[in-house]
């Protein structure tokens, strides 16, 4: 059965021996982050990598508060969160939905009905406010105070406290579809936060659409990108807009809601690279195999997870920017200051005795490494949908997921590896991948040592390394310009005569199968282990 809420998930963690309750007093300023960082790195390099989930029950400065961290911080816990014995089995479910067997008879059509009924059961349902646990306590007006929450500061040079595990809910102004994304939120005061909408994110596109609707003055050459998601041209772009248009823009608001402390499938859904047409609430239902219950928010026209621990409601004022950062990020470096939209709170609702959920990101491996690995396994079928020649992919945690992707393919023609590189760079969030290594199908991409051996041996650097220019992740501090720079693809496949390699390609070393079988039977008797 699906976890109803965060508390149901915590009970399961406790039952499975995956939870450590911290009763000593711990400060949410830096101390919790240091403890969670150390826990995440326990057992590094072993099959038991990733320490326990942590429930802090004595939070300095916040009597009675509880904070959950490292809830996804191991492979075993990630599988427990998604209620599966194998992340690849979820991928197999997705493949079945993407490639249903073509019915050739009445019986085949009847066999499809259960699958169609299952998909129909994933859609979220709205329940009455009286049945929604997230509305047990409601604060409006002067009672709205974010500073009452045990929000963390995770690294010494951070610009302040940050909400690090929020499910940020917006609505597409054109299609009315909802989006749930995870964007850090710097707390400025009790009623306002930053909203770190990187310009390529779906919520930023929602805001751009609102700006386009508000500004019909094309002659003003408004830099809509800068107005939605930071950048050194943000202030300059504001100065190019005439007073009438600026007044109109600033008179418009975009409603936003934020859920903190949801069931694990819903929290995970907020980070998945889903197509904009697919609501994350539906993905949550698919992962849970049970519809997510929603409830109407109090002060904004949005539906929110009914059993979340906290719901923050409010709006972003179009055209309003404020300096956000620095922030110690998952790259292992600080993301420096930039201008981003401002979130104004109008209401906070929460459960009685709410549990605050947080994470810390930094030098891998950390909790987000396991979440990213789950995304890699589960959404491989979506990559294979457009590029079926892909056999497997690996996003090593040390590559912080957007800096390195290793891909194995069934090579069918000259230049095939380069086709794959360009296909990946044209695919949603994968466009930010800084380095792509393409290997043959007989190379295990999960074995980085094997990949290193193949790459070092199989390339002629001048011939097999491809460079291109394009958008890069906003967190890339090394790019020549913010959000724009170069990317590299390495073709580490065997080279064909059609690719200009006319010498014989040598076979890799492998022992005779009969000899291996004989030694397998003899091995224990040798006493070498």
Describe this structure in words.
It is a single chain. This protein is 30% helix and 22% strand. The chain has 529 residues and is of the alpha+beta class. Among the domains are: 113-357, Electron Transport, Fmn-binding Protein, Chain A (Pnp Oxidase, Chain A), CATH 2.30.110.10; 387-499, UbiD C-terminal domain-like (3-Layer(aba) Sandwich), CATH 3.40.1670. The longest helix has 15 residues, at 106-120. The two termini are 43 Å apart.
Brief synopsis:
By secondary structure, this protein is α+β, with helices and mostly antiparallel strands. Helices cover 30% and strands 22% of the residues. The strands form six sheets. Strands 5, 7, 8, 10, 11, 14 and 17 form a seven-stranded antiparallel sheet that branches.
SSE topology:
Layout: H1 6-15, E1 19-22, H2 31-40, E2 53-56, E3 66-69, H3 75-81, H4 87-98, H5 106-120, E4 125-126, E5 137-140, E6 162-163, E7 167-171, E8 178-181, E9 185-186, E10 192-194, H6 202-214, H7 224-228, H8 234-239, H9 243-250, E11 253-260, H10 264-269, H11 280-288, E12 293-296, E13 303-305, E14 310-324, E15 327-328, E16 334-335, E17 338-350, E18 355-357, H12 367-378, H13 380-386, E19 390-394, E20 404-409, H14 416-425, E21 435-440, H15 448-458, H16 461-464, E22 465-471, E23 484-491, H17 513-526
Parallel strand pairs: 1-2, 3-18, 4-12, 20-21, 21-23
Antiparallel strand pairs: 2-3, 5-17, 6-9, 7-8, 7-11, 10-17, 11-14, 12-13, 14-17, 15-16, 19-20, 22-23
Helix pairs in contact: 4-13
